[in-house]
Amino acid sequence: MEQIINNYPYVFLILGFILLIYSGNYLVKGGVALAKKSNIPPIIIGLTIISFGTSMPELLVSVNAANHGHSGISIGNVIGSNIANIGLVLGLTALLMPLPVKKKSIIFDWAVMLISILLFFVFIKLSSDNVFNRIYGVIFLILLVFYIIFSIKFNKKNYVPDISVDKQMNIFLALFFIIISSVGLKFGSDFLVDSASNIAKSFGISEYIISVTIIAFGTSVPELATSIIAVFKNETDISIGNVIGSNIFNVFAILGITGLVSPIHIDNKVMSNDIFWVLGLYILLFLFILPLKNAKISRLKGVVLLGVYIVYIILIVK
Question: Cα(147)–Cα(259) distance, rounded to whole angstroms?
């Protein structure tokens, strides 16, 4: 199989994307249906199944990359996805329809998102060899648990978006979706990591650049799809929460789990350049949701976010 991927890297790159997108979608559908049948409260569904489901492509790609020694892909996927979520996903969604900020806990969630990336920055600076190790992974996972517990208590009536789950779906069908989609995610991440690595080598491009552009875009598709669907359903208030929640999970869950599986070697470019793009977009988002009462991300703000993302991609590819 490895030789076939080497011979047809572009075919398997596209196939990897398709498997990740559809598998992530059906993992969420099956998970939500199973949770509802089991009478699990909606807030827990939103903070666990939906958040993990939309971040599952990033998780599988990052863990797979770390296991195969492609740490550039692993960290680039997380950083690139967080930049794409705000610049690309929120930017495009706001262009379709202005996004009102209705969630009362938006400032708390934004603060956690900011703290997560600042902690990552501090941990790597404290590391003598730029390695995100297993101890840091454990800390991130503990913080994730505390975030979920606090959010459940704070948002007892948290809204869970309709993702078109068949009300007649029984438990066995839901389990089938979960199993099949999990297999699809595994093969999709394999195809994506191996083919992207081969393409990068053939063009003399670093794995990191491939990961923060092509792979990050592909693994951000679930967030983009969820936000755009919400717009067409006139449920625009969930888009911002979906993006911020996904960014928190990307750092705490994906880096935490990946760091436990295999220590991640961080490229100097991440610490000297890319992390400041992440922080800049986080601060820009905060300014865009002011004033907190009746705040709105307008189409003009969407253009600015999208413009920042485009400039970032142009500069990093040069």
Answer: 19
CA 169/CA 68 separation, integer angstroms: 38
Instruction: For 124-180, write each residue's pLDDT tens digit.
Output: 988 878 888 899 999 999 999 998 888 777 766 554 555 555 556 777 887 888 788
Question: Tokens 């059906």 belong to which residue?
Answer: 26
What is the CATH architecture assignment of 2-161+168-317?
Answer: Up-down Bundle (1.20)
Counted residue by residue, the chain has a size of 318
Please compute, for residue 184, the number of CA atoms within 13 A of its CA located in the half-sphere on the CB side.
20
Q: Where is average pLDDT lowest: 39-48, 193-202, 250-259?
A: 39-48
Q: Identity (one letter) of the amino acid at 177?
A: F
Domain boundaries along the sequence of the chain: 2-161+168-317
| DSSP conformation letters of 59-107 | HHHHHHHHHTT-HHHHHHHHHHHHHHIIIIIIHHHHHHS-EE---TTHH
Query: Which residues fall within 8 angstroms of residue 47, CB to CB, at 6 or more apart?
Result: 148, 151, 152, 158, 245
* CA 244 to each of CA 42, 109, 155, 186: distance values in angstroms, whole numbers, following the listed order: 19, 7, 15, 25
Q: For residue 263, which of 129, 153, 162 has the smallest C-alpha distance? A: 129
